[in-house]
């Protein structure tokens, strides 16, 4: 009975937030899905207005996924779209988007983890370093894009330092490399901040016990740090992956707004289709992007949820160094000799202390 009352109270407390989310997020999604099944607006010379063409079924989804256009005068008959039609850029944009997401998230995770481990140490000026590291992340993306556009200009700093004349904005792979460098520079501090929060939750006694037992740096990293920071690390990777799949403004400002540019992402296709007054087919593409991001998030959350349930079995409030060492051994698994030895060593020390106290009391 008490549990039911608490559940009802919790539902009442979160009800306002859920209503706001339903209005702000739920309605636009439902509206976009509805519009994706309607024909694009066409000009009616009789009325002088643009009017919707009625129910279109899966026509827009076929248009994007198969790059097929409906043959004029033959409704329901689809042929390959002519070169230059926007749908012909869909699959190249999908490949570029996933390429950017995989490369940037990987680099940002590695660099962010390294930066977090440095900022987690005790040294003079640590607070100043943490504040300075966050500056690139605090700069608006549009400003970052223009800054790196000047750096990668034909007469910019990069070509001057390299002593070459690389066409960073026209050569396909050079342009993609430039976008990746700019994105990594801007977003790595975000990853470092989230990972640093996870590192600061690890008790220092665990590291001290491992060093006493003779564990080297590699064993401490692989058997203690990585397992214990994994939940925070996965959350950072999840957020950054979902953000990278929606990349739009950075390649648009740095390189080109064209839908067939070497750095065109799927979000850029949506905006370009809307500029052509094809709001319904743009809604279909937006729905496809939503489903794609939802699928990626679902897979990552399922993986992250399993990890959180595994680590939740660790002791919540360790009272001795022995229990902390045992927690590290539990996370590292049976293949964690250093952490396991720490637990045995600390447990023996606790037993010795307990026996001494008993003798003195008697």
UniProtKB/TrEMBL annotation:
UniProt keyword annotations, A-Z: Membrane, Transmembrane, Transmembrane helix, Transport
Domain ABC transmembrane type-1: 94-300
Example of a GO cellular component annotation carried by this entry: plasma membrane
Family to which the UniProt record says this protein belongs: Belongs to the binding-protein-dependent transport system permease family.
Localization terms from the record: Cell membrane; Membrane
InterPro entries, A to Z: MetI-like, MetI-like_sf, Sugar_ABC_transporter
Example of a GO biological process term: transmembrane transport
Membrane topology: Multi-pass membrane protein
Source species, domain of life: Bacteria
The keyword Transmembrane helix is annotated on this UniProt entry: yes
Organism encoding this protein: Corynebacterium choanae
Protein name as it appears in the record: Trehalose transport system permease protein SugA
Membrane-spanning ranges: 12-34, 96-116, 128-153, 173-199, 220-242, 284-304
Region of interest called Disordered, as start-end residue ranges on this chain: 342-362
Pfam families: BPD_transp_1
């Amino acid at each position: 009975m008490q549990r039911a009352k608490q559940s009802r109270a919790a539902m009442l407390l979160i009800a306002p937030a859920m209503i706001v989310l339903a209005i702000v997020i739920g309605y636009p999604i439902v509206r976009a899905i509805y519009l994706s099944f309607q024909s694009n607006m066409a000009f009616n010379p009789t009325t002088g207005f643009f009017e919707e063409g009625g129910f279109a079924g899966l026509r827009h989804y076929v248009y994007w996924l198969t790059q097929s256009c409906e043959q004029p005068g033959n409704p329901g008959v689809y042929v390959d779209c002519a070169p230059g039609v926007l749908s012909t850029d869909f699959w190249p944009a999908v490949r570029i988007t996933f390429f950017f997401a995989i490369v940037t998230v990987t680099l940002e995770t590695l660099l962010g983890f390294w930066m977090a481990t440095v900022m987690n140490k005790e040294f003079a000026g640590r607070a100043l370093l943490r504040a300075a590291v966050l500056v690139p992340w605090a700069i608006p993306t549009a400003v970052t894009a223009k800054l790196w556009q000047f750096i990668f200009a034909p007469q910019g700093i990069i070509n001057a330092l390299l002593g070459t004349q690389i066409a960073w904005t026209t050569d396909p792979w050079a342009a993609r490399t430039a976008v990746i460098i700019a994105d990594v520079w801007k977003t790595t501090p975000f990853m470092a901040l989230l990972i640093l929060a996870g590192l600061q939750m690890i008790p220092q006694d665990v590291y001290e016990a491992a060093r006493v037992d003779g564990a080297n740096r590699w064993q401490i990293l692989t058997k203690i740090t990585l397992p214990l920071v994994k939940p925070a690390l996965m959350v950072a990777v999840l957020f950054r992956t979902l953000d990278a799949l929606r990349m739009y403004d950075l390649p648009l400002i740095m390189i080109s707004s064209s839908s067939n540019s070497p750095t065109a992402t799927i979000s850029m296709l949506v905006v370009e289709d809307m500029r052509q007054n094809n709001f319904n087919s743009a809604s279909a593409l937006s729905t496809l992007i939503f489903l794609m991001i939802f699928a990626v998030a679902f897979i990552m959350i399922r993986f992250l949820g399993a990890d959180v349930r595994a680590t939740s079995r660790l002791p919540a409030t360790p009272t001795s160094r022995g229990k902390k060492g045992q927690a590290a051994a539990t996370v590292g698994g049976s293949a964690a000799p250093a952490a396991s030895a720490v637990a045995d060593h600390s447990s023996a020390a606790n037993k010795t202390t307990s026996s001494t106290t008993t003798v003195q009391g008697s």
